[in-house]
Write a structure and sequence with these properties.
This protein is mostly helical. Helix content is about 65%, strand content about 0%. It contains five helices and no strands.
Length: about 80
């Protein structure tokens, strides 16, 4: 479904009246670069997942504290998972 939306959006942008001209086509690249730049800025502030902390970093305590942040700290199931 997203492929259909992106195809529709690209066809609308390529219309001669919007950005389909010789002078305006670079704005298409800028339009695609904005989400990538936003991701680069926001990504360092996104917390690590418990699975990444446990399996990749080997940080069991960090994974448990992350699970407690997502779920109720008094949940016994979280402690049983580790």
């Amino acid at each position: 479904m997203s492929c259909r939306h992106s195809a529709l959006i690209s066809r609308v942008y390529l219309l001669r009246g919007t950005t389909g001209t010789k002078d305006l086509w670079p704005y298409l690249f800028l339009l695609q670069a904005l989400p990538a730049l936003l991701s680069l800025v926001v990504l360092p502030f996104v917390p690590d997942t418990p699975r990444y902390l446990l399996l990749v970093r080997g940080d069991r305590d960090g994974a448990i504290s992350c699970m407690h942040a997502y779920y109720d700290p008094h949940n016994i199931l979280v402690d049983e998972l580790f």
